[in-house]
Amino acid sequence: ALLGLSGGIDSALVAYLVADAIGPANLLAVLMPYRSSAAESRSDAEEVVRRLGCQSQLVDISAVVDAYFEAPERSDATPLRRGNLMARTRMMVLYDHSVTWNGLVVGTGNKTETLIGYSTLWGDSPSAFNPIVDLYKSHFRQLSKAISVPDTILRKAPSADLWPGQTDEAEVGFSYAEVD
Question: 58: which strand partners?
Fold first, then answer.
């Protein structure tokens, strides 16, 4: 199996669950930062890889995203448009790696985000299977704490890290606790 490991709680929890289920040697964590991604996201993802002992690959998606938006007719792209393309580029990379890794892409989306429509179609929504699709975001913290996901990940604000300072809750206008 393989998954996009962002350094956030969703992908970290799934990485822990999958490594426990099939063994860390059978898990590939793909780190896919964009040039403006927070350094903490990468270091948190690398810490998960270190603790699990799974394989990882780093694929910087900056060149792909930037090349698309270099065209004059797309040069006025909003952060949302760029963010959606980043999410879709990440999934494209994962499915390409699924061929060379000979594995299934594991989803990392949760029930809360699905119910409020906070996901990018053909970006973070497709997967071969998703072990956490029926868990609310508030359950993530409980389960993540119980299985020893690093505290730095547990404490940080949920963010797709699609542009500097972006947080999920600020973008949707309410907290996950309120929605759950």
Answer: 31
